Every structure is written in structure tokens, then in C-alpha cells.
Structures
1.
Amino acid sequence: MSSASGSERAGESAASAVPAEEFDLSLPEALRPAAEALFGDRLALAAAFATLLGTDGVVRGLIGPREAPRIWERHLLNCAALAELIPSGASVVDVGSGAGLPGIVLAVARPDLTIALVEPLARRTAFLAEAVTALGLDDTTTVIRGRAEEVVGGPLSPADVVTARAVAPLDRLAGWCLPLTAVGGRLLALKGSSAAEEIAEHQSAVSRLGGSTPVVRLCGETLLAAPTTVVEIVRERAVVPARSGKASRPERRSSFRTDGGSGGGRRRRG
């Protein structure tokens, strides 16, 4: 489906949810250079998703009404900047996808990626499925209802990259996400200003779970006033708890480099 038709369908869905004039969801001109750099010729599709978030997303309680005027800066651009750390053609699992942040944003910005959105709550998966179809992303993006720990060992293959945003502290996040990551693949957790403190507190737990020393990366430094803070963890070895009733599957290794060569984010040790 073309970007134009996806935008039209998204606009129709949004119009039925909240009056368009209630929030100004248009792209602020000051942010246009960054948006054009991050979304390229799919900027119209990003705008359609902004409309969905600011209308249906607010009505369904996926984001707060106060977030609507800040959708571009706080959510879309913040998530899209993460794409610089993800190599071409990678498989991605977005854990706790919620309103599609960062999963749907990455699907819009990077049509070369294969993305699975994992989310346990029915009302959120319903929104995600509708958004994926409305935006014409069905060929590259799937929605899976369930908790991360429930889908390990299921039909979902270990991914080159697992993403998560504002889900949980780093130790719990690693416990949920690393088993979904291919050995040699990476967990990319979007974090705030406390990222370094989280690393110091949870580094030993991450290591016990098979992860490398976490590293802080800053994405979108040349584009965004507030770069996106990402904690990167490589899955160095498989440490998967035994699960009764589930057949074990051979561990997949990521074919992508994990030495920092695949992404342009500035590296800052925590």
C-alpha cells in the first residue's frame, strides 16, 4: 500500500475518534529538518501515525492528552532516531510496544526492517493492529499479543534487535528481552537521564542473564535538541530458563556486527 493511501485511511480513522481541531498535530516547522532527515519520503506516513496517536491513541488511553501537542518531538522523532543503530534488513522485536513506540515508528521510517510488536494488553494490540493496517505496514509488521516471557520459544524467531521504551528497570528488561534476542544480537533500550545509574546498579544482573556490559549511546545528536538515550546490550550467550511444555529451539546467531560498526550513535560508557 502506498504512503498516500495509508495516510488517507489513518486520517479517516482519526477523524472518527476526536475532533481534529482539539489538538494541533501538525509537524512544527522548527522540527521539519529533523523529521525529513529521519523519515525521508515516508514523512507523510509519519504524519498519518501522528494523527492516529493524537486522536485514537488519546481516546483509548494509550497516551495522555497532554502528550498530544508534543507527539513529534517527544515521541516520533525520539523513536525514529533509534534507527541509526539498526542495520539494514534486520529483524526487530519491540517489547511492550504499547502505542507503537518505537515499533511502528521504526516500521514507518525503515521499510527494510521486519518488525514484531509484542504487547500483552488487548486494547493496545487492537490499536496496534488497526494502525499497522491503516498505515499499510502489514507486509513488514506483525502484532503479537502476549508478555515477552510468554512468547520465548514460540513461533517468533530470536531477533537481530530487540527494542523497548520505558518498560521496566534494566535488570527486569534484560530478563524479558535477551531471551528474544539472537546470540550476537542486541537489546536497545530507550532510557532517560538515569541510564548511567541504571547500568551501575544492574550491570551484574545483566551479565548473569547473558548480556554484555551495557553501553549508553546517544542517537540523533546532529538532528535533535535532546538526543535519544539508548542503552545497548549484546546477547553474548544463551541463558534461557527451562520452560515446561515448550520444545526447545536451536539458538539463532545474529549475522550483524556487534562491535558498534552498524550504528552511528555516539558511545558513552555508563
2.
Amino acid sequence: MSIAKLIFLGGLAGAVFCCESPADRVATPESEPPTAGMVWIESPDGGFWMDETEVTTAQFAEFIAATGYRTEADSFGWSGVFSKEEQAWLPVDSANWKYPLGPDAAPALPAQPVTQVSYRDATAYARWAGKQLPTEEEWMQAATQGGKHTAFPWGSEMLPDGEYLGNWWQGPFPYADEVSDGFPGIAEVRQFPPAENGLYDISGNVWEWTATERTATKESVIKGGSFLCSTSYCTGFDLQQKQFTAKDSGLNHLGFRCIAK
């Protein structure tokens, strides 16, 4: 294994293809969103449209077909995959948005959130779609239902009436996933009830890129947690939690959704 692969999350370098963006739009509740499947989010500065789900593999495939874009994972020739068997993150050759666990595993399903996309990949898609990534503040405005709920999109209890409303790891991570929510890994979008404002999977399933940067390290803030988060580990499904990730990272538990304003 090369030294570059062992470094894994640090200092990757590569060019990114930039797409021309459609004309700017001014969003209002009465305006048409750039695409179907967006919900209106009220905010102190007027509001914005937000994708009701994470961008799916099928949607990302349309972008690739229309532009010929090449993701950073494809350019590098490998990407990061969490191995339940090894209980560790590993660099896997040819892992990409089509085959997020690598070419020897099953391909991503069309309705699953696209993963193995870097911040630059997500930004390129957003420009093509006439959208942008949300800032951390905008993401929180949407996820907390305008500040109504601070812990989860549905309220203060993780399991209201014992019901799982999101996809995350149950049991001691990374040793045993009890799969109490019905999904041993990533789930297709819309498998759990939406929040009050119509957003699906804003807590759990996959982490989501935001446009907010940690100045000291130039890493991007990611929000929402994933199917690998548990009460014994990162608890990323709690809306107050966040992580920082290098912009050129592609991982099999990290996706994105867009806004328009």
C-alpha cells in the first residue's frame, strides 16, 4: 500500500472541473424552485428552497452524463471506505460514486444518497443545477425547524414512542450493529417520515457537506450524522454535533443536499 493511501484524509490535491451556472434566481415562497423536490425554508433573511432529500445517485448520474464531469475520487483512483470487517477506514482502489464500497461490492442504488463525492464535486453539481450548498447556519435553520427543536428534527427525544425516525448505528460502534432501524448500512431516501417542514433524512443516513469552512484548517463543516453514528461514538445525528472534513475527501457515508435562494 502506498504512503499516499495511508495518509488518506490529508492533503489530497487535484483539479476540479467547473461548470457554468444558470442565471441567478431570487427565491420567494411564491417562486418556482430550480427543480422539483424542494421545500421552502423560512429564515430571518427571507428564506430559501432546500432539497427535500440528499442528492441521489440517479440525480448525480444525470449531472455526470450532461457534463462529463470527473469526480476527485475517480481522478485519485481510490477513496475512503469504512470496513465493518476490519473495523476501520481503508483506502479502496476504484471506490467512487457508482461503487461507493469499491468495484467488488454492489453498485449504489439509484435512490440512495450519492456518496464518495468531495466538497468540490458537490459544489460542481450544485452550480450545474442552479443551486448552492447551504451554510452551516442555513442547514441548522432548516434542520431545527426554524429553531423549534435543538436536538432532533422531530423534537427532544431520540426515539419518540420507541420509534426510529432516522438511520444510524444501534449498538457499540464499531463492534455490533443491532440494525434496530431496519438498515444495516445506507438507506434509500424517504425511508423515514419527513420533518414538519418536509425534509427527509436530515438526521442520520449520510453526513452532508455545508459551505461553511473552518478557517484554521480550511476544512468544511459537515452536518447530520450517518448510518455509522451511534450513541457510543460520534452522535452526529444530534443536530448540535458537527465534524470537519478535508474538501477533497470522498467517503461512503458523506453526501450533500442543495439550496436555492
3.
Amino acid sequence: MQAKSPSNVKVIDVSHHNGVIDWKKVKADGVLGVFIKASEGLTFVDDKFKTNASGASAAGIKVGFYHYVHPESNTAKSEAAHFASVVSGVKADFPHVLDVEGDAGQVSVSKLTQWCVDWLQEVESLTKHPAMLYTGAYFARDNLTQPLGQWPLWIAHYGVTTPLANDTWSEWAVFQFSENERVGGISGDVDMNAMEKAFWDKYANSNIPQPLSPEDDVKVVVNDQLASFGRIIDGSTFTPLRQLGDSLGIPVSWDSSTSTPYFDGKPVTNFKLIEDRTYIGVRSAGEMLGATTIHWDSANRKVYIYY
């Protein structure tokens, strides 16, 4: 398990126990994300769920929802169906969370692990949204095993900078390191979490470009911002024209009569059609942008453009 780091994102988690929340004040206190309790077991619905979800989103805070499970009493599919019905129609940024702890430890390791797998798979099937798992550090070590490691882990371990290791996960996506922090807009103590920046970027920063194909393994960085991904073709780097245009706010169009792409109103001559996408030569793109510098970093497979 990795330790907390300065690059981690400040995230809290809340339920009805936290009362009425002033989400604007929460955001002003530097909180960027929140996991909100939605449901528990077969019938319970947190009465602050929808209020918290809408309030946090309106304040510009990214949201995720969690369900406290009771494998000692219910089937995985029945609890998954309950959670899916509660969150239906409510936008989530982060993966849906299975919260497994407490009396769930009464179930054998093998049966509990399979129960969790069934819940995660069923929720992903019902909601068409990714899922993840929350648990305590000791609970993870003693009660959960593979194949749960394929889902991201949100782990709780208070008073330490590095959570206790286990044999199922080598790293955490979210680390709940305190249950008694104070945050503006919330009365009393609140749980505090560190979220890995890469996890945040994947789910919260939807504007950050992602590779459109496994072959697109070259990063195209424009004015120190990641703009697109590309690939090497015959010794030159090509990148998806529309992805580059969208990142830079530059219009892209296609003239079907001449089969010519346009970038910022200018015809593109150095391009290739790959998998129904138009790829522009990165050097040509830089020249069309009026670049002062175009630099290839072979060690890190990056192209830098400055204009």
C-alpha cells in the first residue's frame, strides 16, 4: 500500500448522520469530492441522499454513492437491485461503492468474497456504471480475497499515513484516514479521505484526454497541457484531429466533397484515416498553430508543442 501524498485530492464521505450540509461552504474549504450514502440492506434509503447529491453537485463537488451491505442476511443480487433503484436517475462521477464491514465478517471468507463479486457485477450490469469496494484495513486483510482485487479499493485506517497491507490489493484508490475532521458547512466531525490523483483524473476530470486506441501511446502536450494521444506511423507522430481540436477549443470539420479535413478553417494536407478517425501529423498541426517549438521526448514518448 502506498502512503498519502501531497498530490492526493481532498474527499469526504457523508450520510444522514451529518445533518444539513452547506455545500458551498464545503467546497470553499477545499473539498473536491464526496461519497454519499444512498442505501443499506434491502429497504433502507438514506433520507438525505438526494438532497446531498443535488447540493454537492450544484456546488461543483464531484459525487459518488455508497451502499452498506448485509451479506449475513441477504443475497447480493437483491441488495444490488435495491441500490440500483435508489441511485437510478442520479448522476454519479465516481464508481458506485460496496461498503462491506461489521457483521459481514460473520460470513466465511470464500462466501463473502463471492457475495461481493456478485454485488459488484450486478450493480455494474444494472447501472451501466463502474463499481468499487470500501472496507477497513483489517477487514480487507482478514476477510476478503481474490478476485476482488480487480475492483478499485477505498480503504479505511485511521491515524496512519500508510494503511495496513493485504494480499488482495497492492494499492488504494481512496484512503479514509480520519473520522473526526472538521469541514466548513458541516456541524461536527466528518470522515476525511485522500484520493489518488490518477483516480480523480479518470473519473472527475472528464475533460482530460484519454487514448482512443491502445496504439495511441504517445502524449501530445500543447503549452504544457496534455491535449491528445497519438501514435508513430512511418517515423512520424499522428494524433486524432478531433481530439486535438476539442482539447484546444479549435474547430474541426470535414469537407466530404473533397475528402479534406479542416483545422481552424485551414485545410489539412498531412493526415491519415485510421479506424474511421482522421489523424493529423503532429508537426503539421504545430505548424498550423504557429508553433515556436516542436520537441520530441523519446524517453517519455511525448511531443511538446509551444505556440
